[in-house]
Amino acid sequence: MSELMEAVRAGRTAEVVGLLDELTDAERRALFPELKALRKELRAAPWEAESRRAYPPLYAAGVACQTGAAAVATWIAAADMRWSRTSPALLLRLLGDRAPEWLADLTGRLAERPVASDVPYELMAGLVRLSGCPVPTTEAYVMGWVQHINSLWQHGDSVLDRLRKDAYLADLVAALFETAEIGSRLEWTPREGPNSWTGALAQLTTEQALDRRATVDACVARLLRGGSTADNRVFLRLLASLALTREEQLERTADWLALAADAVSPVASHAQSVLASLALDGELLPGRLAEMSDAVLFRTEKKLVRAQLVLLGKALTRDRTTAEVLLPAVAQAFGHEDSDVQERALKLVERHAEKVEKTEAHAELVVAAEQLIPGLRDRAAQVLGTALGPAGPVAYEEVLPPVPEPTRLAPAPASPVEVAEEVSAALAGGPGVAAFEWALDGLVRHAHQDRDALVEALRPVLARRWWYGDGSEDAATVWDRFSRRNFDVGDASNGLDLILATLLGRTDHRTPDRKISRLLHSFVTQRTTVQECRHSSLAQPFGSRLAEIAYRLRTDPPPFLLSTPTWSTGLLEPAELVDRLAEYRRLGARVVASDFAQALLRVRRADRTVAAAAAERAAALGTREGRRLAAWLTTEGPSLPTSQRRTSGTRVLVELGELSELQADFLADHRPLGRPTSADTGHRWYCHHWSDDIRPHWLALLPERRELVAARQLMDVSTVAVDDVRGAAAVLPHLAESGGEAGEAVHLCLAYGLGARHPEDRLAAVDALLTLAARGQLDAGRLGADLGQLVRCGAVKPLRLAESVRTAAATGANATIWEVLRHTLPVLLSALATDSAGSSARGVGELLGVAAECAERSGAHGELPHLTQTADRRGSSRLVTQARRLRSALAVEVAA
After folding, report:
1. Which residue has the higher pLDDT, 536 or 754?
2. Which of 332, 398, 408 is nearest to 365 (CA)?
3. pLDDT at 869 over 50
4. What is the pLDDT of residues 1-19, one digit of tens each?
5. Which residues contact 83 (CB under 8 A, 6 or more apart)?
6. How many helices (H) and strands (E) does the chain have?
7. Which secondary structure element, helix H or strand E, spans residue 378, and what is its range?
8. Cα–Cα distance between 721 and 723 in angstroms, integer?
9. Is the dihedral of CA 184, 189, 190, 192 positive or negative?
10. pTM for this structure?
11. Rounded CA gap, 400 and 775, in Å?
């Protein structure tokens, strides 16, 4: 057996297989513990050629030397061997002498593995042949089958040819429709022809190799179930390729109605076209068409809504007896948010209203007409021959969300087990400020009280960290991993890793304390970036605090932290900080310098009365830190530096001047917070602060001066609009909930977020806008002017902005949004007078539509510069019609 193990270590797979053939089953089982030990050894070894070459023969030998199907399946799917497996053909040879029942059991277990286990399809398919078992239809097997069929470059034939030869075609195609996220795999082939999945499946259905009815039903059912964009796209294409007959379409009328109502836009459009064809041929009852319209007319896709109105118009013209059923369905569009849709629906009613005079349908039209915008109500009253109720509300009340209240941090965790739970949660979920600070304070407190008990409680958490290994290494080995890695202590999770590794430290005579202390000290003194970026001034104080805490836990553990915030925003109550300093004096504890500096930046100074009372108590302590705190609290409240705008390409950025109070008496790592910031973006490509999770922690550095943080993150936030980057606007709600003046940088961040490419970023910006408005901190004039400037220079697209402000207005903030747009629109409308090509008009009509709706709902009135010139233009474009609508709305006064 020693000969076989030597061959495994040397990577001689063929020799290992030959030696295994000579062993009995009992000898193979006896060998397995040695193979298992070698696997454990290789896991801890560096990923180098010497260790990698042992994996293929080890993989094969482990399969051959185990007798249980469950154990073999686990070995085959093991993650640590995934990249060094032997060929499926070799494994099938090693397993070929097993009983069919055993092989069937193994097949089922492998097929039930997640797709991420990457079990080779060729192995599973070979086991099916050897065992004679039914073909598995699990996700892993079907995904593997599709990938195998897709590999045309290896065989030269087409998808259609390969499917024709498959003995399990019917079973696997049926499973195809039940497999989630399969669409992207099916799209690896061309979209049409015998090399496409849709073309091949349609052809096989024509050849009756697949049951047509079952295939059509499965395809429709899959579209009804929904799924990813790729799934919908592929199965819709397949449905079109099947070319359903009129009889097949008719017997699935209920399915088309459901798809038209709820499916994604392309699928709904297909269903709408099928139903339209049936309706115009007289094969869809008017009641069914009205039912369809009730759903489609309230979809957000204007193309579907307009197509439905066109269909209703054709149906009404084709058969006048349907008016009593279909006109009330048309009137459903009177409540649509788009005034163009309302006008189209009203034109239909005007054309056919005489067909329903003195009927119940007429009464329904009168009720529905109450939803029309003011500019259309007079026309509706005239055509219906009746007076409508007063336009708009008698009084308007703005609806803003409740002001978000910060939460008070709970007392420190009471036991080491509780600390371990909080640390585990913080590391798993991208720790928020409150969770991170609470876990950090718990670590420091319990490390001071009982370090051994804390380490023991943390063992399950430590075992999952990248630096931990198998737990048997000494401290020097652990710290070597940190020193070899490009380790950024300016990240929240990395900072916790540094502190956990410090707590774990066990030294013996081979691991002198001074080596680890030097490494920790280097973390304290190093700068967080080799080449500074715009975030360095924020990352350095954050990282230096964590590194110094780790260093002190190794050398002189503090009893607790001074800077743990009182509130979730990072704000620290002055009386609480004085109490902590008093306790430090009583214990004779030495202050962690960077932690005290952070406490000064967090302590609440805006309330001068509270600050003065705390300053008196701090001075009475008689300590250096007490005197420093007293001086800090008695100086003027949080101030901001001078600022000026700079244009960089299409971007508008903010530069800050020097803030002297953050220069004197602060540590070197904290002084950059008060230094001037530049709009120069030359170093941004060297920035490694890519994690969005760290952004709220930077706000918690300066909880009463968010403008300083916003100016340093303005470039990041601008990318969501200018570069179509996803996710950078997630910080905006935190920015809105933070403290201090909301100045130029905050409002520019908000403006970029409202013009973001991705919906989730726009929603984050809307949340921030409403929060600032609810707190009375939104400068609508400044935001509106910023938006106008950014649209003019091309940084923000009007259509994206229109989506954002429409969403905000829909919450009830009509007056707020009107006040913003009142300052945005004149900038855009003035550009129309000099734009002969009309390029500056693109999307402005949408903004005018939102502004008109807000003005109608809130009762805004008065003049808007340049609106009249736009409204007086010829034509009926959306720009002109919405300008006229807004002009009419502003001319009507609504009672306050």
Report:
1. 754
2. 332
3. yes
4. 678 888 888 888 888 888 8
5. 55
6. 47, 2
7. helix 374-384
8. 6
9. negative
10. 0.75
11. 10
